[in-house]
DNA sequence: CACACGTGGCC
DNA sequence: TGGCCAAGTGT
């Protein structure tokens, strides 16, 4: 392995830095967290940006800052508020970790984010990349920040198809400008996202082309080597969209909260569902029927008598997660109701510490609850189906 | 090291 | 439609 100091001379390292920073200054991209950077805002922006495009992050960031302007506000918020604000961004453990990090900052650091990379690293949701990014951007600590963009740029500069994390850290650490570490790190990332792109990199306009070993061999397009992933499994789920009228004829939907820690979509609300062995129509009908029978037996309809009307078939919703492909097979089940007043908005009497809970949610409350994208689609379709009629 | 963990955009 | 990828982290 080539040692960092043997690859480029001192003068060449200086030139790489100045070329990169020059382009960064000229472009001078305007981003909300660059307006009035504070450690809190930089941390929020970096966590939101994990595995997520900046254009997607910006509106979430702006809303987040209005709702949780500082560590103290975030630390005092409920998990439900936090997840609601994160709803649609994905990787919801980031929100739970950021929430917990804010509480640690309040409790252990007197409300001030620590500057030391190791201290940052110990906060939940802060790994090597985020610690480096926050330390360098918010505090001027001379430390690299290696994300996917930087990895690709370095793989090409060094002509290394599979650079190890240690090698990437060493090279990025050699290059980082001691005078402007935060700007340098961002410049390297922006080069990767705008010029040194995964496909069809624009080497002609790259300020570092003359230093690029991959380019010299004409194989920049093959660097770094992509990891092959097996295609994720395709699963099926029967979904019961159970509705009833409550006080004043207000429409309510029976929703379930997923266990609040660990696992897919932790703490998010959804329509009750059952994983299916087969996607056959009868399997769906049977599963939904079982669910409804159970809800009635558990008293969710209170003293109400009568059977639900025949379930209505809603359009199947296909949704790809990062590691599985789901087909949701929803049925709209209208209960005779009314929802007993004692159950409206109340706690789940059948929650025996499983972490899951059921609740009759008014249509209006759904906007406040953290509900994943696929479930939103199901609920929207169900509400649209109900609206034209009087049920 | 491998895998879980969301969503949206692009081709 | 399907595969790839994005300012990664936790286990």
Plain-language structure description:
- This protein has 391 residues and is α+β, with helices and mostly antiparallel strands.
- The protein has a domain at 235-386: Nucleoside Triphosphate Pyrophosphohydrolase.
- 43% of the residues lie in helices and 12% in strands.
- The protein is built from 16 helices and eight strands.
- It has helices at 4-7, 10-27, 32-35, 39-49, 54-67, 71-76, 79-86, 93-108, 117-121, 128-139, 148-158, 165-175, 181-194, 213-216, 281-297, 373-386, and strands at 234-245, 251-257, 269-270, 273-276, 312-313, 317-320, 325-334, 357-362.
- The longest helix is centred in the first third of the chain and has 18 residues, at 10-27.
- The model has no long low-confidence stretch (mean pLDDT 92).
- It binds a DNA duplex (11 and 11 nucleotides) through helix 4, helix 5, helix 8, helix 10 and helix 11.
Overview in brief:
43% of the residues lie in helices and 12% in strands. By secondary structure, the protein is an alpha+beta fold.
What structural keywords apply?
391 residues, single chain, 43% helix, 8 strands, Nucleoside Triphosphate Pyrophosphohydrolase, 8-stranded mixed β-sheet
């Amino acid at each position: 392995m080539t040692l960092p100091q043997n690859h480029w001379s001192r003068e060449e390292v200086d030139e790489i830095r100045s070329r990169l920073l020059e382009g960064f200054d000229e472009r001078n991209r305007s981003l909300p967290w660059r307006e009035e950077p504070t450690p809190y805002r930089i941390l929020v922006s970096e966590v939101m940006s994990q595995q997520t495009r900046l254009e997607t992050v910006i509106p979430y960031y702006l809303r987040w800052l209005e709702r949780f302007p500082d560590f103290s506000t975030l630390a005092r918020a409920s998990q439900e508020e936090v997840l609601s604000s994160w709803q649609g961004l994905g990787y919801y453990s980031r929100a739970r970790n950021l929430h917990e990090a804010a509480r640690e900052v309040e409790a252990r650091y007197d409300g001030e984010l620590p500057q030391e990379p190791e201290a940052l690293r110990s906060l939940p949701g802060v790994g090597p990349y985020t610690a480096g990014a926050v330390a360098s951007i918010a505090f001027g600590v001379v430390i690299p920040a290696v994300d996917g963009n930087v990895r690709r740029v370095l793989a090409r500069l060094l002509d290394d198809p599979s650079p190890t994390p240690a090698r990437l850290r060493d090279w990025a650490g050699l290059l980082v400008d001691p005078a402007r570490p935060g700007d340098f790190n961002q410049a390297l990332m922006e080069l990767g996202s705008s010029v040194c792109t995964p496909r069809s990199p624009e080497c002609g306009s790259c300020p570092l082309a003359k230093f690029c070993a991959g380019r010299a061999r004409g194989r920049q397009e093959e660097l770094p080597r992509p990891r092959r992933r097996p295609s994720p499994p395709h699963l099926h789920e029967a979904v019961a969209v159970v509705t009833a009228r409550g006080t004043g004829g207000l429409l309510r939907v029976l929703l379930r909260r997923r266990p609040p820690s660990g696992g897919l979509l932790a703490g998010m609300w959804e329509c009750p569902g059952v994983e299916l062995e087969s996607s056959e129509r009868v399997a769906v009908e049977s599963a939904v029927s079982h669910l409804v029978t159970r809800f009635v037996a558990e008293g969710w309809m209170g003293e109400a008598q009568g059977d639900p009307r025949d379930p209505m078939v809603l359009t199947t919703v296909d949704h790809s997660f990062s590691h599985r492909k789901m087909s949701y097979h929803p049925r709209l089940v209208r209960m005779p109701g009314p929802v007993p007043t004692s159950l409206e908005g109340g706690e789940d009497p059948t929650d025996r510490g499983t972490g899951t809970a059921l609740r009759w949610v008014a249509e209006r409350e759904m906007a406040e609850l953290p509900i994943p994208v696929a479930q939103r689609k199901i609920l929207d379709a169900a509400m649209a189906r109900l609206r034209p009629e009087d049920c």
